[in-house]
Amino acid sequence: MLISWPNQIETVKTELIKLIGVTRTKKVCINYDLHQDNKNPAHFIFYENWASREL
């Protein structure tokens, strides 16, 4: 059974959102923000900053 792409977008978004809270609890995480393109809802970007490049 094939799942239509719009259904997959919401599934992916739900899973990506779960990563935010877990990642932000790390002391070395300055910010970890998920963005979804308004024109292409299948395009997600994480904007993240860490205390050092190594981390």
Q: How are the secondary structure elements laid out?
A:
Elements: H1 5-24, E1 29-36, E2 44-50
Antiparallel strand pairs: 1-2
Biggest sheet record: 2 strands, antiparallel
Order of helices and strands: HEE
* Radius of gyration computed on alpha carbons: 14 Å
Mean pLDDT: 87
Number of strands: 2
* Envelope shape: elongated
Task: Specify the structural class.
Answer: alpha+beta
Describe the strand arrangement of the main beta sheet, using strand numbers.
1-2
Strand content: 25-35%
Fold and architecture overview:
- With 55 residues, this protein is of the alpha+beta class.
- It has one helix at residues 5-24; strands at 29-36, 44-50.
- A hairpin with a 7-residue loop joins β1 and β2.
- It is elongated, with a radius of gyration of 14 Å.
- It starts with a helix and ends in a 5-residue tail after the last strand.
- The mean pLDDT is 87.
Which terms summarize this structure?
55 residues, alpha+beta, single chain, two-stranded antiparallel ribbon, 1 helix, 36% helix
Quick structural gist:
By secondary structure, the protein is of the alpha+beta class. The chain has one helix at residues 5-24, and strands at 29-36, 44-50.
